[in-house]
Amino acid sequence: MNPDFPIWLRASHLINFVLIGMLLRSGWEILSSLPRLWWSNDSAPGKEWLKFTKRELPKEEGVYTSLMDEKSLHPLLALPGRENIGLGRHWHGLAASLWLLNGLVYVVLLFATGLWRRIIPTSWEVFPDAWDSLLVYLSFRTPGIEHFTPYDSLQMLGYTFVVFILAPSMVLTGLGMSPAIRSRFPWYVKALGGHQGARSLHFIAMVLMAGFIVMHVGLVFLVHRENNLVHMVFGDVDTARAGQALFIVVITIVLVLLFWFFLSYWSLADRVRAHKFLVNATEPVRKGVFGWMRPRGSTQNVYTEKDISGFHWTNGLPPTAEESQEWLDARDSGDWHGWTITIGDDINGTEKVLTLDDLRKLPKHEYIATHTCMQGWSATSKWAGVKLKDLMPLLGPRPEGANYIMIDSYGLAQKMYDNRPREPFYAVVDMDMYNEDDTVLAYERNGKPLELHLGAPARLRVESNHGYKMVKWVKSIRWIKDYADYGDGRGGTREDSALQAFNGRI
């Protein structure tokens, strides 16, 4: 047996192959939801440095929603495909968690067994030797087998880069797109170039990783194939078993491909079943890793008014006459005369009706924060309004048995995943979100009354979460016992209509 290829190393290599494929395919599903990449944090039209669509964006705000930009990928390419970003994000989170765990086990065992010397150079001679190897490859020749002990210098540098630089960069830039981290540690996200910088760097790392995989797999079959295959399959040095190893490798690759495709079609066959499984599998990580983080928009000094975006995307259009004539009448009245918001208690049946003037009389909370949509766009604004925990006490003490706050909109959902008629938009927040200082009913943005397309006259802000929790055109805010009793029982319209997670912290 070859001591350079123990069973744990070969097993982690195979697991990594399975998981990296899931990561890439679910990542493509996420990217297809908003097939544009920016460096500027306001995601403005015309500022993309790369796009995968021929659609041209209008310069005017509020006429083109991000859902209109979504593209559909085939299930053989994406996980799961067919405009299912909610499930795609769940698969990405699950695969990322398992991939990180597998990588940590690999690195720990690599150093514990001393096998780190296989891939980490210990001499400066590795660089000239790697250059010589590169020249051999560029001349379409193969380095002699004596250079592989077990890897040649060029391979060592490549593996060191992938394991200790590229893979960690994918983790760090991925974390930079988390609302929980952005609202708690804004300096970290800004160091990456903001949300769009993190997103673009993550994409570049993905391209490098995909390129490495293609090159790596290709060289396995093109350069000393017999030795490579028996190393990978048997941990052996006897090339007499190369034929057997080749058969096993080919069958394994086919089975992994079929597994990837199975995940897509299994998800699409019953999306509710897939959602339930994936949320249960990923929620412990969301809660354990990100649940303790609390936003600090009003105390941070990383983002200032100089960072305020010149453009703000939207998802959803203002209510129409079919959706709410009441909202339209208030809009046309001047300064929202006649507009009301109801705070209530579904447990005891009490409620209180407030006007915009009533909201303005309450303590005003103001801060600068970056809004991120689960599709990928972002914008930095200065928000002002009343904290939810200052608003709801107007109704009296928290009712016994009240575990959640439900926020309803005058508007409807953009579309339902199962194509049923659009339903009133709502979201539910738990007590942790409710008690955060930056969970606000906002009525101003950048020192001016809130714009129509961004939720005027008042919208919810939950800075620790993605934008799908932040209801626009708010109609009512109510104490409830359990969100399972409302809608499809998943805690919000985007959870119901797009199969997102109730916990929107990442």
TrEMBL record:
Residues 5-234 form the Cytochrome b561 bacterial/Ni-hydrogenase domain. InterPro entries: Cyt_b561_bac/Ni-Hgenase, Di-haem_cyt_TM, OxRdtase_Mopterin-bd_dom, OxRdtase_Mopterin-bd_sf. The keyword Transmembrane applies. GO terms for biological process: respiratory electron transport chain. It comes from the Bacteria. It is a multi-pass membrane protein. Keywords: Cell membrane, Membrane, Transmembrane, Transmembrane helix. Its main location: membrane. Residues 335-481 form the Oxidoreductase molybdopterin-binding domain. Gene3D superfamilies: Oxidoreductase, molybdopterin-binding domain, Transmembrane di-heme cytochromes, Chain C. The chain crosses the membrane at residues 6-24, 94-116, 156-181, 201-224, 244-268. It is found in: Cell membrane. SUPFAM superfamilies: Oxidoreductase molybdopterin-binding domain (SSF56524), Transmembrane di-heme cytochromes (SSF81342). GO terms for molecular function: electron transfer activity. One of its GO terms (cellular component) is plasma membrane. Pfam families: Ni_hydr_CYTB, Oxidored_molyb. PANTHER family: PROTEIN-METHIONINE-SULFOXIDE REDUCTASE (PTHR43032). This is Thiosulfate reductase cytochrome b subunit. It comes from Tessaracoccus oleiagri.
